[in-house]
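FORM 7B: Structural annotation worksheet

SECTION A. Query
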Amino acid sequence: MLADVGVTMTFEVVESSLSQESWRSGNFDISIQSTNSSPDPAFIIGNYYTMNPVFQPYGEDPELKAMHVEAAALPYGSPERDEAYQEIAAYINETPSLLHYCHWPPAGYYHSYLLGMEDQGWAQVTGVWDVRNLAIAEH
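SECTION B. Predicted structure
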């Protein structure tokens, strides 16, 4: 069905120890992998939304980075820290760049030019993807 409109897909299973190296290569438009969740939003924001060599080697939003650094310095469990990370969540929702759409096994990463991922709610929980609704924007 997708081939009829010029879209080809290749699924590549990668050893877990090589998954981040494969994603950082830049050769993929999407990565789906299992991950452990964390109750502290600093871990998620720091790993998936700010530039680092493992999960986000492609650049970052300087404003988001500044918000994260400030929030992470607040006392763990404080109302101020909670409020700061709620503001970060709202900011990410309003200004998406690289979207990390789910932090529960499985987690996936995709570039913002991959359209239709917001309709993959079932996949976010189960890992069962419906590729019929996906599209790639010109980039």
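SECTION C. Observations
The CA atoms of residues 47 and 124 lie 19 Å apart. The chain has one domain: 3-136.

SECTION D. Sign-off
Analyst initials: ____
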